[in-house]
Amino acid sequence: MKQASIFFLVLVLLVYGCQRSNINKNLAEIDSLVVAELNDSAYHLVMQMNEIDFYTPEDIAHFNLLRVQTGNLVNRPLESSDSLLDEVITFYKLHPDNEKMTDAYYYKAVNAYKMRDYQRSIIFFKKAEILAEHSGNLRHKFKVAEGISFVNGRCANYDFQLKYAKQALDLAKRVNNKNWIAYSYYRMGVAHSKSGNEDSILYYLHQMEKYTKFIDKKELPLILTNLGLLYRDSNPEEAKKFLMKSLSYKEFTNTYEWLAEIAYDEGKPDEAYQYWKKGLLVQDATPKDNILHNIIEYDIERGKTDSICERVNEIIAIRDSIDDKLKNDTIKDLQTRFDHEVEMREKDRAVIKWQWVAIALVI
User: Fold this and answer.
1) Helix or strand or coil: residue 137?
2) What is the DSSP string of 20-52?
3) Is the pLDDT of residue 182 over 80?
4) Nearest-CA neighbor of 87 among 54, 119, 117, 115?
5) Cβ atoms within 10 A of the Cβ of 166, count?
6) At CA 169, angle to CA 166 and CA 172, rounded to 5?
7) I want to staple 182 with a disulfide (CB 3.0 to 4.6 A). Which of 211, 277, 296, 317 is the partner?
């Protein structure tokens, strides 16, 4: 009987060791995917894991950090991310790990920024900056510098915005990450636009053009549209080039609206009218009020009063369409979350069943 008890204990320890080894392997794999910027794959792997599978506070802290990180990277942030990060920070204060602590403070800063609490955001970013300096991790140093530049730009601290944008560009070049270099050139151009330094704006934005193929195709249209906005007053022809290139990837209401404004300023109201009408048809969440006002004004000036009722109907249709999309997205998220929870419960039942079978065999 004593031998059976020892055998059972050994078996339990072996099962525990195997499961712990698999957990560490999965967490390390997610870290590698994040570093390689394979964000969708990292997020998918995180979603396949469950906190109840973890045995140690260290594993739980690491997993929760990855949950927040990957959720942000694929634009699916967790509602509970701030409280999870507080738990992560508490753990790593007791068990120091500069790199993980840098990530935790970085995402605390991101959350504060989203809440428009820019003072707390910059405090968390500065804490992350100190930790990144200690760890020497260039990837962390780059994204923290980028974040600090962004917040300072939002707060109109343009000297600091430019300082940290330059720091991010230098780090991107040291790592020789083409994607980072592209974004850094773009942000340097944006930073110089606040000081009205035309030569510097043109230099950095033209440098960015050489790296556009390294920018995520999902983000490229918006960046090209923003470049068009930067050039709109100083160089309308250059602005039109960027705006038209943006439309070749994806349509945005703002892209058509700014093309319309340029055309109108050039004395081409009919061309502007066509852009406004196209912008009105784009299905995104951008308000259409300004476009509708311009279209109605154009129609009234030309005596096309019969079309006013049609425009009012378009306003109602667009509002209903946006409401339906928001409802559908919410329903889709609820279904996805529910399906995932069901899948996790089934997985838990299967594991428990297997464990009972193993115990029965031992007995």
Assistant:
1) coil
2) HHHHHHHHHHHHHHHHTT-HHHHHHHHHT--GG
3) yes
4) 54
5) 16
6) 155
7) 211
